[in-house]
Design brief:
With 287 residues, the chain is of the alpha/beta class. The chain has nine helices and ten strands. The radius of gyration is 17 Å and the shape is globular.
C-alpha cells in the first residue's frame, strides 16, 4: 500500500494528488549538465529563481554524479573530500534555508556531509547509493528523523532485468533503512535513470516505471539533460536537451511518477501541470 502523504518542513506532499518538482542546484565545477556553480551568491540566486518558478524542493549537491564521478566501482576513483564537499554546500544551504520557504534536500552519499547539511538547514537526504555506500548514512537519517530519497545505482552490478534489478536494489535499501530505524513511510525511491544503464535500458525503465509502485513508496526520477536523451536526439549536447527532457517528464508522469528532479524548473512545472490534468484529472476550468 502506497504511503499517502509526507510532511517536510511544514509542507505536505500528498502522493497521487499531483507531480512535485525538485530543482537542482549543483555547487560543483564539473556538472555534466553545464550548470555547476562555485559562487554562493549565484547558487542562492538560482534557488530563489527555481522557487519562484514553482519548485517544491531545492536539491543541493557538492559532488558531481556524472558518469565516472562518484563511482567507486571504477578504477582510480577519487571522491571529493568531505571537507571540500562541506565547503561547497553548507554556506548555500544556510542561505537558502534562511531566505526561501521551500524544503531543501542534500544530494550526498557521505554520512558526515548529510549530518552537517541537516544541521545547516537541509530537510531531506538524497543518497545516490541508497544506503549502500556509507554504512552510517541510514543511521544519520534515522537520528535526524528526516525523509530520505534512496536511489538504485546499477554501477558495478550485474544486469538481469531492468525493473527486477531496480526493485531488488531498492528493496535492500528499504531493508537497511528499517534496520536503522527509518520508517518506510519516510522514504522516497529513485530508479536511478542513467546510473549504470545503457540508453536502451534507460528507455525501458521509463516505459515500465509504473511497475515500481509494487514497492509501496513514492517514486522520484531524474532524467534531466542526461546523455540518453542526447543519444536519442542524434548526439545533442546537454544544453540542447530540454525538449527531450520534457518528453521524458510527460512519459514519467503518465507512468505514475511522484517527483521530478530537473534543471529547467519553469518548463517542467508547466509540462507537469498539463500532464497531471490529463493523467490525474485534477484540472478544473474554474480553478
Amino acid at each position: 500500500m502506497l504511503a499517502t502523504s509526507l510532511n517536510v518542513a511544514g509542507k505536505t506532499f500528498i502522493w497521487g494528488a499531483r507531480t512535485y518538482v525538485t530543482g537542482v542546484v549543483n555547487c560543483t565545477p564539473d556538472s555534466f549538465a553545464g550548470d555547476g556553480l562555485s559562487d554562493i551568491e549565484a547558487a542562492v540566486a538560482q534557488a530563489r529563481r527555481m522557487a519562484a518558478e514553482g519548485a517544491d524542493i531545492i536539491d543541493v549537491g557538492g559532488e558531481s554524479t556524472r558518469p565516472g564521478a562518484a563511482d567507486p566501482s571504477r578504477p582510480g576513483f577519487e571522491a571529493v573530500p568531505v571537507e571540500e564537499e562541506l565547503r561547497r554546500v553548507i554556506p548555500v544551504i544556510e542561505r537558502i534555508s534562511g531566505e526561501i520557504d521551500v524544503p531543501i534536500s542534500i544530494d550526498t552519499h557521505k554520512a558526515a556531509v548529510a549530518r552537517e547539511a541537516i544541521n545547516a538547514g537541509a530537510h531531506i537526504v538524497n543518497d545516490i547509493w541508497g544506503f549502500h555506500y556509507d554504512a552510517d548514512m541510514a543511521k544519520v537519517v534515522a537520528e535526524a528523523k528526516v525523509p530520505a530519497i534512496v536511489m538504485h545505482n546499477q554501477r558495478g552490478r550485474p544486469h538481469r532485468d531492468v525493473i527486477g534489478d531496480i526493485a531488488d536494489g531498492l528493496s535492500e535499501s528499504i531493508r537497511r533503512a528499517e534496520v536503522a530505524g527509518v520508517p518506510k513511510e519516510r522514504l522516497i525511491v529513485d530508479p536511478g535513470f542513467g546510473f549504470g544503464w545503457q540508453p536502451e535500458q534507460n528507455l525501458e525503465m521509463l516505459r515500465r516505471l509504473a511497475e515500481l509502485k509494487q514497492l509501496g513508496l513514492p517514486v522520484l526520477i531524474g532524467t534531466s539533460r542526461k546523455s540518453t536523451i542526447g543519444r536519442v536526439l542524434g548526439g545533442l549536447p546537454a544544453e540542447e536537451r530540454l525538449e527531450g527532457t520534457l518528453a521524458t517528464v510527460a512519459v514519467a508522469i503518465a507512468n505514475g511518477v511522484d517527483i521530478l528532479r530537473v534543471h529547467d524548473v519553469k518548463a517542467s512545472v508547466r509540462v507537469a501541470r498539463v500532464a497531471d490534468a490529463i493523467v490525474r484529472g485534477n484540472w478544473r476550468a474554474d480553478a
